[in-house]
Amino acid sequence: MTQQSSDNNPDGRSLLHPIRAARVLGRGIKATALDLSADVAAVWRDRSARTALVRLGPWVLSAVPIVAVAAFLHYYLPSNDVVRIVGSEVTREDTTRSGQKVDGAPSGERDVVTRDVRKIHAVWPSGQPRVYRNEDTDWSFPWYFKWDTSDVQAKASNFDSEERDPVWVNVRHYGWRIPMFSMYPNAIDITRVDGPDDQPTPYARIFFGIVGIAVFAGLWVLWRRLKRWVRNRFGSGASA
User: Fold this and answer.
1) CATH level 3 topology of 79-201
2) pTM of the predicted structure, to 2 decimals
3) What are the domain boundaries of the chain?
4) Staple 21 to which of 117, 150, 161, 217, CB 3.0 to 4.6 Å?
């Protein structure tokens, strides 16, 4: 007799269908939350390294690639900031050939190059500062095929405004601002908007979000099977 389980997609239909993917994802979130609660309770009850490894190991193995992929997409997918430009500058920096900043590196070192870096200074509607770098991507990854750094810098200078007469612009960019590592998001394009509340629609993030949900629904089925295999493989220490 063949037993059917709701998490194995028994009807065999494609999980890429939006409605089916949403249903599978909903069941997956509920079942995952229950499983996680049961595993945490079991670890707390037994307080043994073996139980912790078998119960929480699959969760860690699942979370690491998910977080890595999410961080990768968040960094490289285009984002939109509605800001007011207050100035721009060109600075000379010592960097590695991969583009990372090198503070105090000897000028004769082979892997260090000196380059001019264009920066765009802006402020959020709240008044908090926001700084972008403005560099070409050329043919290299990420493939934005940006060769108009000078044009973007000219737009930034043209949109420069003061607080009493603000000009709000949308800066399309990728990357993160991390002051500790002197990292700046790279501005891809600048367009004028009507006001600070005129937020553009992030089509790229919506598209990858929908695809991600459908893929996650399929991966959830594989994850459930992996979890059962780990519990069966390591014996009673993994059983409920």
Assistant:
1) OB fold (Dihydrolipoamide Acetyltransferase, E2P) (2.40.50)
2) 0.72
3) 18-76+207-235, 79-201
4) 217
